[in-house]
Amino acid sequence: MRDAIIELIDVSKIYSVGEISTTALKDVTFRVYKRDLAAIMGPSGSGKTTLLNMLGLLDRPTRGKILFEGRDISRLSDKDLANLRNRKIGFVFQTFNLINRLTVFENIELPLIPRGVPRSVRAEMVKEAILKVGGDVSWLRKKPTQLSGGQQQRVAIARAIVGNPPVILADEPTGNLDRGSAKIVVETFLNLNKEGHSIVVVTHDPEVANCMEKIYVIRDGMIVGEHGADPKESLIAKMLESSGGRRA
Question: pLDDT tier at 146 (50, 70, 90 boundaries)?
């Protein structure tokens, strides 16, 4: 049996405001293994983002425990958790979360700066990352606002992978994109998975979910289903079908 990179064991998360408490997750057990390619689906308010935050060590559970590479992280300080995230987890968001006053190069290099990576080394790592996501080195001198939405998302993915983390977590990464750009982003994730990255994508789009290998369904803060994806219902297959079988 494969060792899990991230394990959530009987995790619950309860948010309290005054006398009102809301259970966002309830006794969830979830594991991310090496080379996983998974989607998480569920209606609004189902707990998808809270689950992703737990997997990304961005929040602490009310009950249960989280293991990272077999290590219980509950006793880690906020600083140690931040260092662990920086080295081991890449994040991609629906709104890109790029800093528009910085160049593309400066955005991508950000995760490397806290590590003390020399600038000359950072330059090579940034170039490698932008090429790996199908971008162009000419983008590096531009500001994010000079790029299309699909190009900005590829920059965001380059930033997520520049330090070569084993896990990439994406929250609705195609939500702001047209279908053509969404297809490129999904194919980028698939290629990264082939290179060894574990990919977990939260999405409301079944065509995107079916590009993954397995789909988890969350409802009312609980995992209520897990099944294999249907490649015939994937975004890539649908676009190939609509183009008459011709690859773009």
Answer: very high
Query: What is the tens place of the pLDDT at every residue in 48-66?
Result: 999 999 999 999 999 999 9
Strands 63-68 and 71-72: antiparallel
Please choose, from the candidates 114, 178, 106, the residue with its C-alpha nearest in 3D space to the C-alpha of residue 140. Answer: 106
CA diameter of the chain: 58
Q: 37-47+85-242 falls under which CATH superfamily?
A: P-loop containing nucleotide triphosphate hydrolases (3.40.50.300)
Share of the chain above pLDDT 90, in %: 92
Query: Are 198 and 167 a contacting pair, CB within 8 Å?
Result: yes
Any idea where the domains of the chain sit in the sequence? 37-47+85-242
* pTM exceeding 0.90: yes
